[in-house]
Write a structure and sequence with these properties.
alpha+beta; Structural Genomics Hypothetical 15.5 Kd Protein In mrcA-pckA Intergenic Region, Chain A; four-stranded antiparallel beta sheet; 17 strands; elongated
Length: 235
């Protein structure tokens, strides 16, 4: 049997090393900052063999330590490294993390709770790829009283505008009074502002939204603005 040598293009090789994102890698290559075996390469699609030596600005690229981080994102922070509007970002809580890490999925500025960061792209893809149907659980408080008809609509899938339909979700009512309802909802996908759009369609806007679980990972006792290491094999 012949030995198989793994081949990746240059952009993928850089991102897989944990040095930067694919978008950042594209900028580095086009900027003439990346060399392969000592020669500057401007073609981001160039095939790279395992034995090839990649360097950025003259510094050899080595596979970085894999990091798996669970952060409790507070309300008021955006899930991006740099914000063009100058809003505070979640990376303000990760200043002690030396490796480049990216968020696995997002939470909007007004939402809080569990957010995972890693530099392991395969791990990130495994959690977010719709074909794996990884569940995400949220504690949600909405304005108004959720009735059984509302739960049925959510459980059967509901149109959320812009030609999109939210897949069936599991809903459990935690408590309710005359003005609001607190419930737990579990989804298996992550459309943009999906939960808020679901309840807007029911004319019961979200007052508070906390992600408490993502796949096998729970928020536990982690406090807002704090993070902890997790294992990719946690259950």
């Amino acid at each position: 049997m012949k030995n198989r040598t793994r081949v990746r293009n240059l952009i993928r090789s850089l991102s897989k090393s944990g040095v930067c994102s694919r978008k950042q890698a594209l900028g580095l290559v086009k900027g003439g900052k990346v060399a392969v075996n000592g020669r500057i390469v401007l073609d981001p699609g160039k095939n790279i063999m395992e034995r090839d030596l990649i360097s950025v600005d003259g510094e050899a690229v080595c596979v970085r330590k894999k990091r798996y981080i669970l952060l409790y994102k507070p309300v008021g922070y955006v899930t991006t490294r740099n914000d063009e509007l100058g809003r505070p970002t979640v990376y303000e809580f990760l200043k002690d993390v030396k490796e480049w890490v990216f968020p696995v999925g997002r939470l909007d500025k007004d939402s809080e709770g569990l957010l995972i960061f890693t530099n392991d792209t395969r791990f990130g893809d495994r959690l977010t790829d719709p074909k794996y149907r990884v569940p995400r659980t949220y504690k949600v408080t909405v304005k108004g009283v959720i009735e059984q008809d509302d739960i049925s609509r959510l459980g059967n899938g509901i149109e959320i505008g812009h030609g999109e339909t939210a897949k069936p979700s599991k809903v459990v009512i935690i408590s309710r009074d005359k003005t609001s309802t607190q419930l737990e909802i579990t989804l298996v996908e992550g459309k943009n502002r999906e939960i808020r759009r679901m309840f807007e369609c029911l004319k019961k806007p979200v007052l508070q939204l906390i992600r408490t679980r993502f796949g096998p990972y729970g928020i536990g006792s982690t406090q807002p603005g704090k993070w902890r290491e997790i294992s990719p094999h946690n259950t």
